[in-house]
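ugh ok fine here u go
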Amino acid sequence: MAHSRPDCTDEMLLKAICNNDVRAFEALFERYAERLYNFALRYVQDPAIAEELMMDVMHWVWMRRERLDNIKQAASYLSKAIRNKVFDHLRKTTIDTLPLDALPERGNQLVDPTPTNHSLDLAELRESYERTLQSLPAQCKKVFELSRENELSHAEISSILNISVKTVEGHITNALKIMRRNLPSSTGVACSLFLLLLP
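structure:
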């Protein structure tokens, strides 16, 4: 088993991986594999598939290792990668096979039961998401990114930003309301499924 290299920052590991350092890759794997697996399992509900998605992400990282030299935050980078993998898996296995009214509610976000086009322009949906994210008030955006990108708990965010947990919760609730209001309504199923990947 590779040494976990606790003295190495993520940035140091990524730079080493970029230079074909297998031990650095193994250290990064040990550091993040369980977190990626647990995230995937939360949504796919199948240990074998969750492990496959996690392994796909880590394999993808190794195959793209020459492009890692400009990456500063491994947690954010890997979080986006596993979210995309989970999203694509759910899109392929759910949107293409289930009727609209078979999808569950997400809070106050109801799935539109009326017939719509099942095709999904992922690029358009993600672009709309990023545009909406950038439009959030600065503190709200910061809280939401710490929650979504870094998967920090409300308590951890509260400590980092020196604000109350209630304030953190309020920012996240507000961000989700804005997301639901601004994501394309014409992609009812896609939008609902996309929102499943939000905190």
